[in-house]
Specification:
This protein has 23 helices and 12 strands. By secondary structure, the protein is an alpha/beta fold.
Length: 772
C-alpha cells in the first residue's frame, strides 16, 4: 500500500535527477500520471547550476519525506488506538482498509488537479487542503476518543481515523503524483522517474525503521508531536515546489508512442487490473491477520508483511521486463508445500514439532508465501500494463483495487463470514486470476491457443489447490456446536468425547477459553483446575471470610465454580459474544450455577478498571485475575507499567494480582518480574504439569503482591497440597524470578514494548526430547 510504488533503482535516484535521463518504460502504477511526463519538450527558461541543484534537492527531499510520513503514521496511529479496543488484530485490519481507501482518494485528488484544473489554480486548491489538514493536527487521537463501556468498535475506529488521520493522509497520498507533474513542468528536459525511487527508498526506510528505531527510542506521544511538525514542514516544501512549477509553462499531455520494453499484449479488461491489485491486498491482510492472531497485534508484525508487499511492487515495476512467471509460481507452490508439512510436523512431539510451530518459522513461511504470491500478482499487473493512452485508467484501477481489497477484509468479511476465510479466498482467487491473465498473454506457455494439455494440467493443479483450501475450511467445523465471527475473533463451541468424558469447549481462534464436563458437577477445569496456580490461590482462602474477586477476561466463567455464598465476582469482558455464550445454560453453566454473586462488566477491562480506580469510592479486590488472551496473541496493553498502576489502584493493600502467562511463543515471566520490581512488588511463579485426574492442564501463573508474607503463604500451601496428594515433587513448581534473570528484560510501557526480546529461542536440536 505504498504512496508511490515505483519503479527504478533507489541507489541512483539522486544521480539520475541531476543527470539527463532517457525516457523510461511504463512503470509504477501508483503515480497516477502517464509516462509521457519526462519526454515533453518545451522551454522552462535558463537556470543556473546552483539553482538547478537546489530545485532537485527540494523535489527529491520532499518526495522522500512524504513517503516516510505515510508509512510512519500507519503503525503509529494503529499502536495508539490498539489498547482501546482489546488489542486484537481487527484494529489493524480496519486501519489498513482505511489507509487503502484514503490512498486511492489521494491519487484521485492529484489526478483531478493535474488533469482537470488549470495549472495556475492547482497550487491554491492544494494549499487549502493542506491548511485544513494542518488544522486537524495532531494526527494521534486524543484521550477523548477512548471508548467508555461497550461500543461498536468498527464504527468508532473509522470515525476517529476519518477525523484525525484522513486530512493529513490525503495530502501526503497526493504528494507523489503532484510532485512528479510539477517537476516535469520545471525541468521538462529531465525525467521525473528517479523521484519514484526516492519515494520507494523513503517508504522502505520508514517501514523498517519505525519498530526498530523510532518505537524503541521515542515515546508514542513524542513521536506524534515530531510527526506533526514534520508534516507541516513537508507540506510547506510541497507548496514551495508547486510555487516553482507555477512559473513554468503547462505541460502538453498528448501521449507519445508506447516505449514499453515487452511485446504488446492483448488488451486486458480494467476488471482484471482491479482484481489483481485487490487480491494482492487481500493476501497481505490475510497473512497479517494470521500472524497477529497467533502472536500479538504489534507494529513489527504489521510492518513485515507490508514491507514484503511493497518489495514485490518495486521488483516487478523496477524493470522493463516482467518477472518470470514460472519462478514466482514455483516459489509460491513450494512454500505452500512446506507450510503443509510444517503443520503436520507441529502435530507431533519433540524438537521437530517445536521448530515447526515456533513463531520464527511461522513468520518466515508466511512472509515467503506472501512474497511469492504477490510476485505472481504484481508480475501479471506489470505484464498487462496498457498503452500510454490508458495509463491513468490503469493507475486508478490498481489503487482502486487496493481499496477494494482493504474494504473486503476490514469491513465486509467480518460481517459475511463466520471464520477467517480471507486468506484461502485470496489464494483461490489468485489461482483463477493467474489463469485469466495467461489468457491475455500471447507469448506465454499457457497462452490462449496453447495445446489443450497445457490448460488441462493448469486446471488440475488449480483444482487441487481449491479442493485443499475447501477441505481445510470444512475441517475446522468438526464437532462444532456453534461458530461465529465477531470483531474480537472467531468463537467456536465444540463438544468432544463420549458419555462420562464428554466435554464442551470454547475456543477463540486457537486458544481454549475453557472447558466444562457435560452433565457433571461444577468442577473447575483446564488452566483453572484446582492444582493450577489460580486454583491453589482460590482454594487457600479462609472459608469464613467472603472474598471480592475481579477477573479480566470471562472465558466460559470457569472461575465462578470457586465462588462461595457471600463472595462477589466481577468479570470484565470486552466481547459481548463471549458474555452471551458463557451465560447460555445450553452451552455452559458455571455462571448460572455459581453460589457467588456474579457481575459482568462489558468493555475493555483496563479501561473499566481505570474508571473504577478514579471514582470517588473505588472498588477494592482481594484478588484480581488477568487472563485475557485472544487466540495465542499477547494482550500487550494489559502488561505495561501503566496497566499495573491501574491494577494496584483497585487492589487491597494485601491483595493479590494473578496473571496467566502460559504462551507457546513468548516468555512473559521476565516481563512481569521486571514490572513488579519497577513497582516495588514481590513475585511468585507457580507452574504445574498436566494433571488430568485433577482436571488441571499445564499452566503458568505469576502472582504479584505488595505483601511478601501473602506470597510465601501461597508457596507453602502449594507445596503442602502437592505432598498431601502424593504428587511428584516437580508436578507443582514454585519459584521466584532472580535479578540476574530480569537483567536483560526492559520495563514494558504503553509507549515501549520489546516483544522481540520476549520471544522464545528457536530450538536447535532436532530429534531429541523436549519442545513445548
Amino acid at each position: 500500500m505504498p504512496a508511490e510504488r515505483n519503479a527504478g533503482s533507489s541507489s541512483r535516484a539522486t544521480e539520475n535527477l541531476v543527470a539527463d535521463a532517457a525516457e523510461p518504460p511504463n512503470r509504477g502504477p501508483f503515480v497516477g500520471l502517464p509516462d509521457a511526463i519526462g519526454s515533453t519538450t518545451f522551454s522552462a527558461g535558463q537556470m543556473s547550476r546552483a539553482r538547478t541543484r537546489i530545485l532537485l534537492l527540494l523535489f527529491a527531499g520532499t518526495s522522500f519525506a512524504s513517503a516516510c510520513l505515510i508509512f510512519v503514521v500507519q503503525p503509529m496511529v494503529g499502536k495508539r488506538i490498539l489498547p482501546w479496543f482489546g488489542g486484537v488484530p481487527a484494529v489493524w485490519m480496519l486501519c489498513l482498509a482505511f489507509y487503502q481507501t484514503a490512498l486511492f482518494a489521494g491519487y484521485a485528488w492529484a489526478h483531478w488537479l493535474v488533469r482537470g484544473v488549470q495549472s495556475g489554480r492547482q497550487l491554491a486548491l492544494h494549499a487549502l487542503l493542506f491548511m485544513g489538514a494542518a488544522l486537524a493536527l495532531p494526527v494521534l487521537p486524543g484521550e477523548a476518543w477512548k471508548p467508555q463501556g461497550a461500543v461498536e468498535p468498527s464504527g468508532a475506529i473509522l470515525a476517529m481515523l476519518a477525523v484525525n488521520v484522513a486530512p493529513a493522509f490525503l495530502v501526503l497520498a497526493a504528494t507523489g503524483p503532484l510532485l512528479q507533474a510539477w517537476f516535469a513542468r520545471c525541468q521538462p528536459e529531465r525525467s521525473p522517474y528517479p523521484l519514484y525511487a526516492v519515494s520507494n527508498l523513503g517508504s522502505l526506510l520508514a517501514l523498517l525503521g519505525y519498530p526498530f528505531l523510532l518505537e524503541s527510542r521515542l515515546s508514542l506521544s513524542t513521536s506524534g508531536r515530531l510527526w506533526s511538525a514534520a508534516f507541516v514542514v513537508t507540506g510547506l516544501a510541497v507548496l514551495a515546489c508547486g510555487a516553482l512549477a507555477r512559473r513554468a509553462r503547462p505541460l502538453d499531455w498528448e501521449a507519445p508512442a508506447d516505449g514499453g520494453g515487452t511485446p504488446p499484449l492483448r488488451q486486458a479488461p480494467a476488471a482484471l487490473w482491479l482484481l489483481l491489485a485487490a487480491c494482492a491486498v487481500v493476501l497481505l491482510m490475510g497473512v497479517t491477520n494470521e500472524l497477529c492472531l497467533d502472536v500479538a497485534s504489534v507494529p513489527f508484525l504489521w510492518i513485515l508483511p507490508l514491507a514484503t508487499y511493497l518489495t514485490t511492487f518495486i521488483l516487478c515495476f523496477g524493470s522493463r521486463r516482467s518477472p518470470r512467471r514460472v519462478i514466482s509460481v514455483s516459489l509460491t507452490l513450494l512454500v505452500l508445500g512446506v507450510q503443509f508439512l510444517a503443520r503436520r510436523a507441529s502435530e507431533g512431539e519433540g524438537s521437530l514439532a517445536a521448530v515447526a510451530e515456533s513463531i520464527q518459522v511461522q513468520i518466515l513461511l508466511h512472509c515467503l508465501f506472501l512474497f511469492g504470491a504477490c510476485m505472481v500478482l504484481h508480475g501479471e499487473l506489470h505484464r498487462l500494463r496498457p498503452a500510454p493512452s490508458r495509463l491513468t485508467t490503469f493507475y486508478m484501477c490498481v489503487s482502486g483495487g487496493g481499496a477494494l481489497g482493504g474494504l473486503f477484509v476490514g469491513i465486509v468479511a467480518p460481517i459475511v463470514f463466520d471464520d477467517y476465510l480471507e486468506l484461502p479466498i485470496g489464494v483461490g482467487l489468485g489461482c483463477l486470476l493467474l489463469l485469466a491473465a495467461c489468457w491475455y498473454d500471447d507469448q506465454g506457455w499457457l497462452r490462449r491457443h496453447a495445446p489443450r494439455w497445457h490448460w488441462a494440467l493448469a486446471g488440475a493443479l488449480t483444482g487441487i489447490v481449491l479442493v485443499n483450501l475447501a477441505t481445510g475450511a470444512l475441517g475446522r467445523l468438526e464437532n462444532v456446536l456453534h461458530q461465529e465471527r465477531v470483531f474480537f475473533g472467531v468463537l467456536r463451541v465444540r463438544q468432544v468425547g463420549e458419555r462420562a468424558n464428554t466435554q464442551r469447549q470454547l475456543f477463540n481462534g486457537t486458544t481454549l477459553h475453557g472447558l466444562q464436563l457435560v452433565g457433571g458437577a461444577q468442577r473447575p477445569t483446564s488452566y483453572y483446575g484446582v492444582l493450577t496456580g489460580i486454583g491453589l490461590a482460590l482454594t487457600q482462602r479462609r472459608p469464613e471470610v467472603p472474598s471480592r474477586i475481579g477477573v479480566v477476561g470471562l472465558g466460559i466463567g470457569t472461575l465462578a465454580a470457586y465462588g462461595r455464598r457471600g463472595d462477589r465476582l466481577r468479570f470484565y469482558e470486552i466481547d459481548p459474544a463471549v458474555v452471551r455464550l458463557a451465560s447460555d445454560p445450553a452451552y455452559f453453566t458455571f455462571l448460572a450455577r455459581s453460589a457467588a454473586e456474579i457481575e459482568i462488566v462489558e468493555g475493555d477491562g483496563r479501561i473499566a478498571l481505570e474508571g473504577e480506580r478514579d471514582a470517588s469510592s473505588p472498588s477494592r479486590f482481594g484478588l484480581l485475575v488477568v487472563d485475557a488472551f485472544s487466540s495465542d496473541a499477547i494482550p500487550v496493553h494489559l502488561l505495561t507499567r501503566e496497566a499495573l498502576a491501574v491494577y494496584l489502584g483497585v487492589l487491597d493493600p494485601e491483595g493479590l494480582l494473578a496473571v496467566h502467562s502460559s504462551n507457546r511463543h513468548f516468555e512473559l515471566e521476565p516481563v512481569l518480574g521486571q514490572l513488579a520490581r519497577d513497582a516495588g512488588l514481590r513475585v511468585l511463579v507457580i507452574e504445574n504439569d498436566p494433571l488430568p485426574r485433577r482436571l488441571s492442564a499445564r499452566a503458568t501463573w505469576v502472582f504479584l503482591s505488595r505483601s511478601g508474607n501473602r506470597l510465601r503463604a501461597l508457596a507453602t500451601f502449594a507445596e503442602q497440597r502437592s505432598r498431601a496428594l502424593g504428587l511428584d515433587r516437580q508436578a507443582i513448581r514454585t519459584r521466584v524470578p532472580t535479578p540476574r534473570g530480569l537483567a536483560e528484560s526492559p520495563v514494558w510501557t504503553d509507549d515501549y514494548i520489546d516483544l522481540l526480546g520476549a520471544m522464545r529461542p528457536l530450538p536447535v536440536r532436532l530429534g531429541g526430547p523436549g519442545g513445548s
